[in-house]
Predict the 3D structure of the following.
Amino acid sequence: MKKNILFAVILFCSVSVFAQDFSVTVRNAVSKIIPKNASLVQVELPVDSETNSASEFTVFLKDVIEVALSDCGKEIFDLKADQQSELFLAQLSDSGVYDMSSSDWAKRQFPEGVIYSSFIEKDNKVSVYFSYKQFAGNTKKTSVEFSTKNLPGLNYKPANYELAKSINEDFVRNIPKPDYLITAAMLDSEDNLVNMLYPNDIVKFMISVEKDSYIAILCIDANGDKNWLPVENNFIRAGEVRTFPDLKDTVFKVVDGVYGAEQILIYASTSEKGLPEQTSTGRYARNDIQKITRGITAVKQSSAENYETSVFKITYTVME
């Protein structure tokens, strides 16, 4: 019995030391790319490079990054929903070519820059890639590599890794360059920006477009099922920030028992004819997010009418 307790204590200490080593490595990497005079930094959620989604390692890495920034004397910036709305409008006002450094509003409301991170796990090693984007326009990058054996018990990929990877590749390969800017964000029931969810979470979407547009919202769940989410009024004026669902007594709710990376594809077109064909799935079940069929529908173009189209993808992960 004493030997078992001693073994457990030694194992716990070893894991703590390895995690501490990783934290030191991350702190050294972050301090190399963030200027000393940058006091306020926004931290984007780390994502798996192959699926653009989150995992257990995402939560661990984000915590490590924030501790590293704190150790370096930096303050963490937390983007709120109202600021996201203002950011949408600032982006659209510049016709999609948006430079934070040229906006007095952004300078007052936002930090000096954002740190992005992605990772890929392979052959018992995890490579982490850091990128610090200054709002003045400069970007600095660095990377670290660590043995996963030194970080036991962490999951690096979403539960539906193969499907999530395939969908992400299909989107990158098959979705054409947008004709104009559409921007969107996912919010939880308290208006916090989120991309990690749990069963029964309630979500909504903020959407804004550069030109007067009709929209359609396609969801692909962790099983690969797809569905067109119900929209009562799918017309959005340029520069308007709309929140969905817009149906009375309706919410978008994360279903239980389906875990992994999921996708929201928001299509926009200056004509309803430019939207994908939507397969009818019946009336939207009140207070529940419906399952959807697998696949991404291509946007049809018509030579007889001149219109423009765009699509925006939100990837989020449903955790167990």
Remarks:
- Confidence is low (pLDDT under 50) at residues 1-17, 94-102, 282-304.
- The radius of gyration is 21 Å.
- The longest helix spans residues 2-33.
- Helices lie at 2-33, 56-71, 81-93, 104-109, 161-174.
